[in-house]
Amino acid sequence: MKLGGSVLAVVLLENGRQVRARMNQLSVNGGLLSLEHPLDEGIKVTTLFHLGTTSIRTRAEMLFPMWATKGCFQPFRFMELPEHDRNKFRLHLQFHRYQQRYAYGQRAAGHQHGDPFQLHCCAASFCSTGFQRIFPRC
């Protein structure tokens, strides 16, 4: 899923150093970070970021960086994401994708601000299909 840098992340290196990044893309297998300076390919790190109301903290392996106009993009793949957490994460991504589509539909229809009641009703219909276990505010 494309995030366009809207999700902030922290990358914890094995030497204790912390690197701030922005998440540009995310999937259940890994993602793409926007960094000021590239990290070495193949190093093992811990990634921390928020998706919705959930904090994700998991081990990852950094892949080959690509230079960008400002800084670089560096892909990573998750190493230790248990199946239970992977399924929970997949549901979060699906819900986040739904929210993006809803917001886009509101803008395309000419609404400046989406109707929060309508979004709540849509979220409630998701709750009846299993999201209540992950989204306690539903």
What does this 3D model show about the protein?
The radius of gyration is 17 Å and the shape is globular. The protein has two helices and seven strands. It is 28% helix and 38% strand. The protein has 138 residues and is an alpha+beta fold. The chain folds into two domains: 2-78, Beta Barrel (Thrombin, subunit H); 83-133. A hairpin with a 2-residue loop joins strand 4 and strand 5. Strands 1-2-3-7-5-4 form a six-stranded antiparallel β-barrel.
Entry keywords:
globular; 28% helix; Thrombin, subunit H; alpha+beta; 138 residues; 2 domains; 6-stranded antiparallel β-barrel; disordered C terminus
Set out the fold topology.
Elements: E1 2-12, E2 18-26, E3 30-35, E4 44-51, E5 54-62, E6 66-67, E7 72-78, H1 83-108, H2 116-127
Assign the CATH superfamily of the largest domain.
Answer: predicted glycosyltransferase like domains
Which structural class fits the helix and strand makeup? alpha+beta
Number of helices: 2
Roughly how many Å is the radius of gyration? 17 Å
The secondary-structure element order is EEEEEEEHH
| Percentage of β-strand residues | 35-45%
Global mean pLDDT: 76
The CATH topology of the largest domain is given as Thrombin, subunit H
Low-confidence stretches: 113-138
Strand order, biggest sheet? 1-2-3-7-5-4
What can be said about this structure in brief?
By secondary structure, the chain is of the alpha+beta class.
